[in-house]
């Protein structure tokens, strides 16, 4: 069953088209991540779901209730939708407890009990209840903002890049905590982010936007392995994209003969492999030959640029950080899994 249904949403700001025919179904209790470059329309879409913006055309339904269509629009405060903005937006003149309890009924005993329960759920120590927002770390402020949103028992939770201001280690820990908390509560969640790794790890469903349009949606692994076009492939991670000719399920390309995910023949197309699908060896002379021209050490992994012998194309390959070959080394490459044939997509226009 789907909690949220977006149907052909369109939105313009003056002459600028922000959204064009966006339709998406969000399953009940799931985590959907909307990802895309700056200006792709993802934040406009989130604000439209929240009720801060209204579409020019299209409809939006939550749990069977129509929130927006051509005849009416339910205001934001009546939608029972939680919203956590990027900066948390805590009230600076209120304590942690008052921020969390904002909007709760003023019954003294039950209100305090509910605030304590919410603080515990987001792993905030009870001693922090009397602190002011400026006395908290960035991660603590985001937990307070999440607890405040949960206090209203929302039907849907919207997260607008809530982890972007946190350092890398804290961002990962917060993401895991929030995912677990919302899943345990059974709350349908939509996260907007520009961070591809965050999107892939958090989502049950991933939706990619570009120039105000939804270009592809589905399970994160499916989008990573089978992107609809080259732009989507490169946006979701490093990719090796090269021209090829397809014959009987094989691609003839700069890497030699590579199995592909289609049996249709193509005289001229482009294929995609992820860097982890390329295995590198300095001793096994099977496979394609190349030379290491760049070396980027990243700790446990090392990203190498290898120039292929023959056509001279430079491709990315990942290797163990401690065992990566030196610059100038002659290496041999072979592939694992199937290469993905990229479809030719018409250029998108926001108008």
Structure description:
- With 351 residues, the chain is an alpha+beta fold.
- It folds into two domains: 2-230, Rossmann fold, CATH 3.40.50.300; 240-342, Nucleic acid-binding proteins (OB fold (Dihydrolipoamide Acetyltransferase, E2P)).
- Helix content is 22%, strand content 36%.
- It contains eight helices and 20 strands.
- The chain has helices spanning 42-50, 96-100, 108-121, 138-150, 168-185, 196-202, 220-225, 230-235; strands spanning 2-13, 16-27, 31-35, 57-62, 65-68, 81-84, 156-160, 188-193, 205-210, 213-218, 240-247, 250-253, 256-259, 266-273, 278-281, 288-297, 301-308, 314-320, 330-335, 340-342.
- The strands form four sheets. The protein has a six-stranded mixed beta sheet, with helices on both faces.
- Helix 3 crosses helix 4.
- The two termini are 33 Å apart.
- The relative contact order is 0.12.
- The mean pLDDT is 88.
- Keywords: ATP-binding, Cell membrane, Ion transport, Iron, Iron transport, Membrane, Nucleotide-binding, Transport.
- InterPro entries: AAA+_ATPase, ABC_SmlMolc_Importer, ABC_transporter-like_ATP-bd, ABC_transporter-like_CS, ABC_transpr_FbpC, Mo/tungstate-bd_C_term_dom, P-loop_NTPase, Transp-assoc_OB_typ2.
- Residues 4-236 form the ABC transporter domain.
């Amino acid at each position: 069953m789907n909690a949220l249904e977006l149907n052909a949403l369109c939105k313009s700001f003056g002459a600028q088209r922000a959204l064009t025919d966006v339709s998406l179904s969000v399953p009940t209790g799931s985590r959907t991540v909307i990802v895309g470059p700056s200006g792709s329309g993802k934040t406009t879409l989130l604000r439209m779901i929240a009720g801060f913006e209204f579409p020019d055309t299209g409809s939006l339904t939550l749990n069977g209730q129509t929130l927006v269509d051509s005849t009416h629009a339910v205001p934001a405060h009546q939608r029972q939708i939680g919203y956590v903005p990027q900066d948390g937006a805590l009230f600076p003149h209120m304590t942690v407890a008052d921020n969390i309890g904002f909007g709760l009924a003023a019954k003294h005993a039950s209100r305090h009990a509910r605030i304590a329960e919410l603080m515990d759920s987001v792993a905030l120590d009870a001693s922090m209840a009397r602190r002011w927002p400026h006395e908290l770390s960035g991660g603590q402020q985001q937990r307070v903002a999440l607890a405040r949103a949960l206090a209203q028992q929302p039907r849907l939770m919207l997260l607008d890049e809530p982890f972007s201001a946190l350092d890398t280690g804290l961002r990962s820990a917060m993401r895991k905590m929030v995912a677990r908390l919302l899943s345990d509560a059974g709350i349908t969640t939509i996260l907007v982010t520009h961070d591809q790794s965050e999107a892939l790890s958090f989502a049950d469903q991933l939706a990619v936007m570009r120039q105000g349009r939804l270009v592809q949606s589905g399970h994160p692994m499916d989008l990573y392995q089978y992107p609809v076009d080259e732009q989507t492939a490169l946006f979701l991670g490093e990719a090796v994209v090269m021209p090829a000719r397809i014959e009987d399920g094989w691609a003839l390309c700069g890497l030699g003969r590579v199995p592909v995910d289609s049996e249709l023949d193509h005289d001229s197309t482009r294929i995609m492999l992820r860097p982890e699908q390329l295995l590198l060896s300095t001793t096994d002379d099977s496979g394609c030959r190349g030379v290491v021209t760049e070396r980027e050490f990243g700790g446990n992994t090392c990203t190498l640029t290898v120039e292929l012998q023959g056509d001279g194309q430079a491709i990315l390959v990942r290797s163990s950080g401690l065992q990566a070959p030196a610059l100038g080394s002659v290496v041999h490459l072979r592939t694992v899994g199937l290469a993905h044939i990229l479809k030719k997509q018409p250029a998108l226009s926001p108008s």
